[in-house]
Amino acid sequence: MWLIDKIAEQRIIEACEKGEFNRLAGSGKPVNLGDDSCVPESLRAGYRLLKNAGYLPPELHARKEIANVQQLLLAVDTDDAGAIHHLNARLNYLLMKANISYAGTMVCENGYFKKLRRKAVTLTFSSRVKSEHS
């Protein structure tokens, strides 16, 4: 977690303990996720149409595909070195493509990718050792 995240989290916890969030306007009511007041009025109809049609911007589609491959990599059988290698290659390709296409905005947060990569390398190594001993 970044330092700024830790500071923000600490301030939120302190404010909760002081009761500063107890009497906020709209407290206890659902959040309106359809609020498009930040979108310029001339673009709202288009944005709403795309949203209702299930369209995802390319950056979000890329993030979704990366997350799917990460989940597959975590769930793959440790004895299947071919699948691990294929998923690693696919993940590397998607991350490289996203980082090039979206100017580095696709960076995985909080070292999650490093942990995932370490696990994949460990799984690949252990599956090779098992196959050599069989």
Structural write-up:
It is a single chain. With 134 residues, this protein is mainly α. It has helices at 3-18, 41-52, 58-75, 81-101, 112-133. It has a domain at 57-134. The mean pLDDT is 77.
Q: Which descriptors apply to this entry?
A:
about 130 residues, mainly alpha, 5 helices, about 65% helix, flat
What is the fold's blueprint, element by element?
Blueprint: H1 3-18, H2 41-52, H3 58-75, H4 81-101, H5 112-133
Helix pairs in contact: 3-4, 4-5
Explain briefly what this protein structure is.
It is built from 5 helices and no strands. The protein has 134 residues and is an all-alpha fold.
Task: Tell me the radius of gyration.
Answer: 22 Å
Q: If you average the pLDDT, what whole number results? A: 77
Structural class: mainly alpha
Measure the end-to-end span: 42 Å
Shape annotation: flat
How many distinct beta strands?
Answer: 0
Low-pLDDT residue intervals, each spanning 5 or more residues: none
Run of helices and strands: HHHHH
| Biggest beta sheet attributes | none
What count of helical segments does DSSP give?
5
